[in-house]
Amino acid sequence: MPSLRRPSTARWRYGGNQGPIGGVTPPVTGVQVPVGSLRGDSSLLGGNAPLPDLTVQDGGSVQDPTLVPGQSADADLGLYLDLNSVEKPVPLRGSSGSATADGARTYQYEKLNPDLFAPPGTDAGSVPNAVWPMGLSHNRFGTGTRSGWARQQNTDVLPAATNMAGVDMKLAPHAYRELHWHTAAEWALVLRGCVRVAAINDESQTFTDDLCAGDVWFFPAGVPHSIQALADGVEFLLVFDQGDFDENGTFLVSEMFARTPTSVLAKNFDAPVDAFKDIPRGELYIFNGTPQPDDIRKQNVTGPAGAVAPAHAYTYHWSRQAPFETPGGTVKILDPTTFPAAAGFSAALVTVRPGAMREMHWHTSSDEWDYFLEGAGRATVYKAPDAGRTFDFTAGDVGYIPRAAAHYVENTGTEDLVFLEVLLAPKFTDISVAQWLALTPKQTVKDHLNLPDSLLDNLPKQKTILKQGNPNMTAVD
Question: pTM to 2 decimals?
Fold first, then answer.
């Protein structure tokens, strides 16, 4: 006979979601037909109901919690906490956050975001969320057979990112992102594989080029273009200069033809109506294509106005640019100084060694849109006048930092941290906090911050960009 036991009504017991189905292990029901009532009665109202038995309580406190290295240190030190080393993290830092909890939780979120779960003591006030994992974005598949996919980040999922949005797109071998154009400008970094792009501008000049991992293209708003993967497929990152940009709102050649009367198409193209009987009746979006010739010259089309001149090229082979080397890592910058066509877009590709950090800085004229390509890191965002919050990032995350907000990016992992910094600016610039203080009269700084001479005399008068540090992130000194 099946058990008819009912769960205890005295208290609930729940913990981090670890079950195999949607994070929950469902119980096996012992009830064969509906029983009981959906609602209680007035006898349960306060004043009517008997008082609870306070001798039986369970506040969910964790007895003798396991702490990770650095968790007992002064909270203001803000040491990085590797919560992956414990099964059930607890929100403790030094003497702060002493109330533990064993409630409904998803431990993996807490382990990925230790600085939100157990924030440094220096965090204060309210700062808009600055991180969005692309892994939580809805993935839209192409219309072809395993032709590819795309997922996006915009203000729908990251409201603070008002000026820029991003799309991560994958095309299978020879697949197309169909001929299209946007109301936003499109800046792109090739992440994997190789791709052929083609465009025509409003001067009737044409452009075609092949790009591989590490290379960049840029198409101004309104310029129609095509994107086709080469033989091994391609993945690329798109950045748009509109925070509410929606990849699903792109102007498409297939839809333009489908929404135009056939008689008008015939008149426009000097062709019989029957010529349009096989046009697509809906968007192609991402679809399988015919393999292109390896020799790009066989696909170059040049009209009377000629091709786009190299000085105004829509592509830049950034993969071939040697990076600037520092003891803390490498940096290379791409902005209109060397890529004139990408007016208003500036970017830095930054590699931070373990224990090192992108120095404290801010940008004077633009928000900062980041994409984390490899490794793990964190940043504290200072918001005027007295708020600050620390965010954690891993590969596949988007970061967004408002204009003029001071911040750093610290490598918290054991491997290199690689991330892309994008600004809507005519030149990549920043204000270095260390250099600012070094170039300010010493006594002025001393009067403000009470810093010792030994520190002030060692301030760099040049930007260091990346700062070295101890790879042991829990070291106090």
Answer: 0.90
